[in-house]
Backbone:
């Protein structure tokens, strides 16, 4: 495959993934207006379980299938690739069915452990119903994920990208429409509306599967033609084939489970700890804010930064395999600098504008609690980003087992600290325990990257100090802007006022940060000449610098 076609495919897949993620964030804003914080908690109870069981059912197989198929296609053994597809589909059908049966059957036990009491605002029956509604999607999504991996193994990224977007669009349309109809038209309960909202995962999966089946029908003649050109199939047993597959898969599944596993710990401890701390009346409202709403805002800069940072990982792999440690040092440095450069100002911006930002996106009804939680949660974005990138770097230098070990260390810290922290600090105790767990994981992965990648952080520390200074200057400017606007707008007065403060503050802060970074040449050093050339050509109308 030509480099241009490969780059185009990668771009299509990345674009599809991030359109899907952005849609997955945006829908929560109108959804929160319909169901409130308690409804958000109920939605989170079901969705955290679904994410965990889906990860177990798929076990990282889609990405592993992509790697497996690509490997055997490269030697012309298309028969083994197709055999893996057939066997993998049967496996995904079985594991998906088992995950569905287990979650559906265990829902009453999980619901009881989740609530910590039968007398919270959401009843035991409501939680059981929501978990069972979302469990149906487990019958389809694993098979759909494997089909995506098979197409990607053939260097065909379009089916994955298009099916992801269609799945998300169908899910969101059904979710919002059903929630609105149940509450506003039929006068139904919030629990019923949330049940249909979680069932939207199944409806969306049907949409995504329909797209993949259409692509399969369209591409099958070409795939069959490849079979006819195949070399003699590799002599490999089904057991050996799956053993190789899971060798590829396990690092993907453990690292991908990081955030859901932390939420899993919260689901079984948060309400109990809040009740023990005398916060029973607000336990579920706070859970909805901490677990369902605020993380979506925090993940926006994380997704953007890791998208930029992870593009460097393939080159890291190449440098490590060639034992070119000087180039490897520069590549890891650039990856880290990109993360700090993009996420740090977003963290400070969210910290300063926490209250109006929460009011803008989720309404002002719970703005004081939501703003306080967002302010504490904002710095966790930097930890999320570093954990994701460190895990990818360790995979790039073939030391992925240390990423799994680091996740284990972090989870132990989270489990040990979560209930004591919540009892001491109430709802933000959960966030502090998460932050401490991720900090331990990151410290361990930094050490392993330094040891096995021969990485030195001197240049990073110098650049990071400069970025911190620029971000603080930006934060002070945003705070001053917010103070001036407070004479005309108060975020407590309504979502429109909160929107004005948030948007103006964000715009001014962003301009100040990037102007300082551009003038100091930090932008060029971190992002390269391409970005600064675009600024000079498109914005400043100057002749760009030579690369």
Residues:
């Amino acid at each position: 495959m030509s480099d241009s076609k490969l780059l185009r495919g990668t771009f299509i897949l990345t674009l599809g993934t991030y359109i899907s993620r952005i849609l997955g964030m945006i829908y929560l804003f109108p959804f929160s207006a319909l169901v409130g914080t308690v409804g958000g908690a109920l939605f989170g109870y079901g969705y955290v379980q679904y994410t965990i069981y889906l990860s177990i059912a798929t076990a990282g197989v889609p990405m592993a299938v992509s790697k497996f198929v690509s490997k055997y296609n490269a030697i012309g053994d298309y028969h083994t690739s197709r055999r893996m597809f057939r066997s993998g589909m049967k496996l995904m059908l079985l594991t998906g069915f088992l995950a569905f049966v287990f979650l559906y059957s265990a829902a009453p036990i999980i619901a009881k452990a989740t609530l910590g009491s039968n007398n919270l605002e959401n009843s035991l029956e409501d939680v059981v119903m929501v978990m069972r509604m979302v469990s149906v999607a487990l019958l389809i999504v694993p098979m759909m994920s494997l089909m995506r991996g098979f197409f990607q193994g053939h260097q065909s990224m379009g089916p994955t990208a298009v099916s992801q977007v269609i799945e998300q669009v169908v899910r969101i349309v059904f979710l919002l429409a059903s929630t609105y109809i149940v509450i506003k038209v039929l006068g139904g309960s919030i629990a019923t509306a949330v049940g249909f909202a979680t069932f939207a995962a199944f409806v969306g999966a049907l949409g995504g599967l329909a797209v993949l089946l259409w692509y399969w029908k369209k591409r099958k003649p070409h795939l069959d033609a490849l079979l006819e050109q195949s070399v003699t199939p590799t002599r490999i047993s089904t057991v050996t084939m799956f053993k190789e597959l899971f060798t590829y898969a396990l690092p993907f599944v453990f690292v991908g489970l990081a955030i859901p596993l932390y939420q899993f710990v919260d689901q079984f401890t948060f309400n109990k700890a809040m009740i023990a701390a005398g916060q029973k009346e607000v336990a579920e409202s706070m859970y909805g804010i901490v677990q369902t709403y605020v993380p979506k805002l925090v993940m926006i800069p994380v997704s953007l930064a890791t998208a930029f940072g992870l593009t460097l990982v393939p080159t890291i792999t190449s440098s490590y395999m060639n034992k070119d440690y000087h180039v490897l040092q520069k590549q890891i440095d650039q990856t880290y600098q990109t993360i700090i450069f993009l996420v740090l100002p977003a963290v400070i911006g969210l910290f300063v504008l926490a209250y109006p930002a929460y009011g803008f996106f989720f309404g002002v009804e719970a703005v004081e609690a939501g703003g306080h939680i967002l302010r504490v949660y904002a710095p966790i974005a930097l930890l999320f980003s570093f954990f994701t990138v460190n895990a990818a770097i360790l995979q790039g230098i073939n030391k992925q087992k240390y990423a799994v070990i680091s996740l284990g260390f972090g989870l132990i810290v989270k489990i040990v600290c979560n209930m004591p922290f919540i009892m001491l600090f109430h709802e933000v105790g959960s966030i502090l325990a998460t932050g401490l767990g991720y900090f331990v994981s990151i410290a361990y992965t930094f050490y392993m990257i330094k040891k096995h990648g021969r990485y030195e952080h001197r240049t990073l520390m110098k650049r990071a100090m400069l970025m911190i200074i620029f971000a603080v200057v930006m934060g002070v400017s945003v705070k001053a802007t917010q103070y001036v606007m407070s004479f005309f707008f108060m975020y407590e007065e309504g979502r429109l006022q909160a929107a004005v403060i948030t948007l103006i503050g964000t715009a001014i802060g962003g301009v100040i940060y990037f102007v300082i970074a551009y003038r100091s040449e930090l932008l060029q050093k971190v992002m390269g000449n391409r970005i600064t050339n675009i600024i000079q050509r498109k914005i400043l109308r100057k002749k760009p610098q030579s690369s």
In short: Residues 257-547 form one domain.
